[in-house]
TrEMBL record:
The chain crosses the membrane at residues 23-42, 49-67, 73-94, 106-128, 134-167, 179-197, 270-289, 296-314. Residues 143-277 form the O-antigen ligase-related domain. This is O-antigen ligase-related domain-containing protein. It comes from Streptomyces thermocarboxydovorans. Its main location: membrane. PANTHER family: TEICHURONIC ACID BIOSYNTHESIS PROTEIN TUAE. InterPro entries: O-antigen_ligase-rel_domated, WaaL-like. It is found in: Membrane. Residues 348-359 have a biased composition (Basic and acidic residues). It is a multi-pass membrane protein. The keyword Zinc does not apply.
Amino acid sequence: MGSTGMAAAGADADGERRNGLDVAGVVVLGACAAWPLITAAVRGGRPEGMLLAVLAVAAGYAAGRIGGTLLPVAAPCVWALAGAGLAVAVPHLAPGPQMSTPLGHAGATAAVLALSAGAACCAAWAATASALRIALRLLAAGIAVTAAVLGSPAGCVAGALVLLCSLAAVRVRRRGPGLILLALAVAGVAATTWAVARDALPDGLTGSLEGRLSAHRVDLWRDALGMVRQHAGLGVGPGRFGELSTASGESLLSDGKPHSAPLQLAAEQGVVGALLLALAFGWVLYALWRSPRSTPVVLTAGAALTAVAAISSVGNALSFTAVSVGVGLLAGTATARPLAPGTPPRTSDAHPHEDRLSR
């Protein structure tokens, strides 16, 4: 009776923590949806794009939680195949060699393929049969090769890094330090983007980065930073960057975006908008830390989401609904509690009551 009562109490406490985590997520996403409405009411603009992105992430997260609970192997496998198929089949998403492709499509392709590789690796860790695990990891490797064939070197590198991180995760006993490193990596990419926009790096390094990123993209970042300096409080209004950016107006292929999620939100919604984006990413990492799934699944999903965050810091990936849905799907899958028979038992590092600091 005593052990049964303790188990029931532990389950209740675990349920309360998960409910609290979900409530925090609703609050964060609600703030991300409400703030652009506020800034649009004051500054003008079109908040529909931001609202659609928030809705896509929320819907993907809910679907990921359901799929990860009922079908922890099959669901992420299907999503991995769907993402890879989308990158191959939809011509406007794949970067390709054509000169008329806007800047954002290459980043969207890389992000979708990174998420697909992460989903395949998460499915591999959830599988019990060694042959199935090998097949799913080969699928992840095939996704990275597909990125190379599509002409997306960023997607190829991101997919390969996700696969390598997933394989290395088996040796990691504490998820907390791993997630902290992933957060620092994203912060480093965002800080570098900001430094390039401010021209704060050494001339040689700035020239090298401009050569890889294109001078037009850097000019867009500098326009965005100028807007932040002038309108740090509320920004210029959602969707108004293209109207006010000199670099955007001079390009025939411009889509009216600065191709950096942090800079876009800071320019259009003020510093608060950029902080809300950082808060949303921090909540995802915290949800992964509290996840009942095993550490390899958590770190694999974290690596894929980190790759998407890094790509979004230097590109326009989050403006694509497929990417936003994929982010939610992977995050939901990695934080779900599997119920399917044959699911590998949770390891102690994934138990919410043990070794909190190490997780």
